[in-house]
Amino acid sequence: MALLLLLGGQGLVGCGSWSWGRRSAGPAGLMGQTNREDPAISGNGRVLTSLVERGGGSTVLLQEQPSGRELPLPQLRRLQPHRSPSLSWNGRYLALIVQQGSRHLAVIQDRATGQLHRLPLPGDQELERLSLAPDGRRLALEVVRQGRSRVELLDLAPLLEPDLPATPVSGGGGLP
Amino acid sequence: MRSLHRAAAGWGRSGEAARGDAGLRPRGLLLATTAALTLGGCMGPMPQPLLGLNSRLEAIGSSRAPALAGRWLALIGGRDGREQVQLIDLERQLPVPLPGLNRPDAQPLAVAVDAAGEKLAVVRQLEGRTELVLYRRSLMALEPIAMQPPGVPRRLSLRADGRELAVEVSRGGVWQVDLIAVP
After folding, report:
1. Is residue A25 helix, strand or coil?
2. How does pLDDT run across B55-70, given as a tens digit for each residue?
3. For chain A, which terminus, N or C, has the lower number of CB atoms within 10 Å?
4. In this structure, how many other beta carbons lie within 10 angstroms of the beta carbon of residue B94?
5. Residue A26's pLDDT is what?
6. Chain A 136-175, CB below 8 Å of chain B: which residues?
7. Chain B: nearest CA to A41, how far in angstroms?
8. What is the distance in angstroms between the Cα of B156 and the nearest Cα belonging to chain A?
9. pLDDT(B10) > 70
10. What is the CATH architecture assignment of A33-155?
11. CATH number assigned to the domain covering B2-181
12. What pTM was computed for the model?
């Protein structure tokens, strides 16, 4: 899929001196006017995911960057609609909310092994959004119960190997 | 600093809530989550709720739009409809101050953080407009990022290395994704 360089490095914005290089992720469909929503980018920027309408339901689209080549996700095909995709550091793990029957559940696709991890939640909670830690060690869930939303954290260490950057980054320990 | 005090006060209440009646419902919810995840044990190893952190998150009031990176959790939370961006250090289990980011007249819609906890990208509504801003914590500086071509931003994702943003933008009734290099 062609990537369009729109305003590479030219845009000086507001009163600041930082410049913002921009490009569009390109249309998600051949017709060009397809909605493309809820993006998530891997920690190293090599994989981009977003939601597109396919087969009558919101479907996660996974693409290499910057080539735009689509990466297959056959195990997620019958679990639409998809929501709230999130990627780990190198894009090994894709976490998202899927629908199975009448239930929403969080799943994590391990692209290295092909394994699909299903994470069931109690039936009285509605899952709204999620965020996977780039290293794959934690998952944050936004759940709604009795009309109130709250964020909960899960420890994924028993489930996933870490997906770490090639060069370790500072944890920001120098800041308060 | 008012936002810091409010956030810190919320976390401080968690101990009291856990001892009093107000703590019973969250604790029940946590147990329910634990039970559900434990029942899945027959399917292999299952993730476990981080009970201590979850109890502290409960003290914020309502919370939504989580974003994890490194030791950081960014979210939108608050009480009585007064929502603000919060950044929580998961190792210290404490919120950190974000001076100059939150405003009482702004409604945050989405937030993302990098793994160093240095950059936060926020979509917020202010004076009837929806804007994308980048906050650098070490500088306590807020920089607007204009949509070009013009459009209305909504959800976003920040690369964990902090170098690029993926932003959902509405233009002419179509949702698109912009990739913006962060200097």
Report:
1. coil
2. 999 999 999 999 999 9
3. C
4. 13
5. 64
6. 138-142, 145, 148-159, 165, 169-172, 175
7. 6
8. 6
9. no
10. 6 Propeller (2.120)
11. 2.40.128
12. 0.83
